[in-house]
Design brief:
alpha+beta, Chemotaxis protein chec, Surface presentation of antigens (SPOA), 7-stranded antiparallel beta sheet, 32% helix, globular
Length: 276
């Protein structure tokens, strides 16, 4: 397998960033982070038959794409681990992809945050709703994921158009920065990954409650209308980080601004059930 140091700077940055997004997504869903190693994947014959199921990720508004692929076996294994962590390991076959879909959601959100940081403007990444056939890549990497009792593989691929777009759209100070260290370039673990995550910006919001209304009732809303929520005034509000409820607390006022005093941290088993 080729050494990852042969990749150009945009390709190496993409490889590091997407591997980090997978690792962070699993950390949020499983409560434990796998070790992740990546390296370029060589295709001996163009158009070879691939066993992976591929999913497309669309970068908006540019509509540039990259793809993620894994075998049915690894997809099912990941789903079962995520469901087991949330206490739902007895799910039937039609729901067996729930965990994988949850990982896709976390992965695309984290990747979008990293892309936004590099380009210094808001970038949105959307996952395709269904699997697609294997596209042709100019660059493809293989990720090896390892936990104490499980290991699996995920493939990532993109065309040169994606690298050119990042190189073109990146501010000069970012585009010209040195690539990640070539010393052990394909590993993401321990303190090095934690240092990278410390710069990730996460949206934080507070939910006072929810309501479901028929469309005819929504159309009747006007200034002065009251929408009743599903939470009483005595119940704690939810603190949502990156579309996942992480804590509950009470509303306070600090120097004229609203705030939340944390009363409860959500367990990792409950977080999957609270994904927004």
């Amino acid at each position: 397998m080729a050494d990852s140091r042969i990749l150009n700077e945009p390709a190496r940055w993409l490889a590091e960033t997407l591997a980090l997004a997978i690792r962070q997504g699993l950390l949020e869903l499983l409560g434990v982070a796998p070790s992740v190693e990546w390296a370029p994947r060589c295709q001996e014959a163009k158009g070879e038959v691939r066993e992976e199921v591929w999913h497309e990720y669309l970068i908006l508004p540019d509509k540039t794409s990259f793809w993620l692929g894994l075998t049915q076996e690894d997809s099912h294994a990941l789903s079962q681990r995520v469901l087991a962590t949330s206490g739902r390991e007895d799910q039937n076959e039609p729901d067996s992809q729930t965990g994988w879909l949850a990982l896709q959601n976390r992965f695309s959100t984290i990747a979008a945050q990293q892309f936004s940081g590099r380009l210094q403007r808001k970038i949105v990444v959307e996952a395709s709703p269904q699997a697609i056939s294997a596209p042709n890549f100019d660059c493809e990497i293989e990720l090896t994921l390892s936990l104490s009792d499980w290991s699996g593989g995920i493939q990532l691929g993109w065309t040169s158009a994606l690298e050119e777009w990042f190189d073109r759209e990146s501010p000069p100070a970012v585009a010209g920065r040195p690539a990640p260290s070539a010393e052990d370039p394909g590993k993401l673990e321990g303190g090095r990954t934690l240092d990278l995550l410390l710069d990730v910006e996460l949206p934080v919001s507070v939910s006072f409650g929810r309501a479901q209304l028929p469309l005819k009732e929504v159309l009747k809303l006007s200034s002065g209308s009251i929408v009743e929520l599903n939470r009483s005034v005595n119940e704690p509000v939810e603190v949502i980080v990156n579309n996942c409820v992480v804590a509950r607390g009470e509303v306070v006022v600090v120097e004229g601004n609203y705030g939340v005093r944390i009363k409860q941290i959500i367990s990792k088993q409950e977080r999957l059930r609270t994904l927004y």
